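Researcher: Next entry in the queue.
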Amino acid sequence: MGNRMDISFLSAVELARKVRRKEISCVELLQHYLDRVDEYDESINAIVVDLRDQAFQEAKRFDEMVSRGEQLGPLHGVPMTVKESYNVAGTPTTFGNPALKDNVIKTDAESIKKLKKAGVNIFGKTNVPLGLADFQTYNEIYGTTSNPYDLERIPGGSSGGSAAALCAGLTGLEMGSDIGGSIRNPAHFCGVFGHKPTYDLVWGKGHSPIEENRAFSDISVIGPLGRSALDLEQAMRVVAGPDLIRARGYKLDLPEWKGRDISQLKVAVWKNDPLAPVTRETEFRVHQVAEALRIEGAFVDESARPKFEAGYSHEVYGRLLHPTMAARMPDQDYESLKRYVDELADDDDSDVARAQRAQVASFKDWAAANEERHRIRWQWHEFFENYDVLLTPTTPTPAFKHDHRKFGERTLTVDKEERNYSEGVFWAGLSGVAYLPSTIFPTGLDTNGLPIGVQIIGPEYSDLLTIGIAGELEKIGFKFVPPRNFMQQFASR
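Model: Structure for this entry, 493 residues:
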């Protein structure tokens, strides 16, 4: 079967290629990853729902297809885990909420159906924070997930289990979701690739604890994480497309990266911002990527910005994000929040008070923010008529230590300066509020041995372009680096 370490950290595309070439069987490949889960996951706690029995039956069926010479899907035989928030038939979908502990779902999410048709073998689900609403990943049902690069630190959230499982070589591919950086922050913290798609590019039906739900949250998207940009591209080609109603009149026709070259690119760079300052090393990584593109012939502009003020965009994002997140609250909690907001002092203009008022805003208030959002969308459109992509940080810092205090008590430490915890969503919100695709790719480890990712933002429906550019940067050397120190801890036992 070859070198175990090499197999563990291959891309999903490479794993599928090995299966097609009969270099490894689907059963052997699944067993390999399950052995790693049994050996390593106790310390990480990434995979919280186990589906190995049915996965073995699938692996045997997949091997029979290979032996008969049947046509295989592009991800045939790839062992895969998915975020706990996806509906997978016969498993609970809880969003980390103890009240939903026994919420066993009968049907697969639409995206899961597409992935299975492409040949993946889903053998587990990965951990999330309560309500998918944190940069950290812990809840009362499944416990706390840790970062394989440093077990005292967070893997990110809310797709924290997804990124940690990939990082530790416990799975071949992952699917997460993102409303405030929930794919992007974990990818950054764990040194893997992640893609937040254009809003509504991927049908979200089945990413809900309520099986009958048809609507999908504002801003929120579902998308892939992997150890290579190749995996993001392949996964997007599998899951992207209109729902069955829209498919009557809409056909997916995304712009392709293939046939283009870095030397043709016009790249804008936004390295830092006083609204959400990033560490010096994080800022340097954005600069380093920009320089790499410049060396390859790209035109790079570090002063270009959309016409809106950053603070205006972030304020509009908050006015849309907070009521969307609050809509997930149990009725009793929401009514309690409304009563609390009614008692706030009129002159209380703190960040916390503004967020709480936004959570219970009227539809009139939401509609006003929505109109402003669409003005921002068009300002982005005008910006991208002159630039292909924008490089930014992903979030202010590398992975920080677990902090389970109340939200209002938490802070971020940025180069020894205490900053507001909520600043962690600023860089995600830039593209999130305006429906834009964003691809995160790793740039290597910092002086503390922690990964730093950089974000590529593009115009709506340029998903394959941002992923393609990440792929070119991967070839240059901006690639996934396995957490060797974590593995060595077990080797020395």
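Model: The chain is about 40% helix and 15% strand.
Researcher: Noted, moving on.
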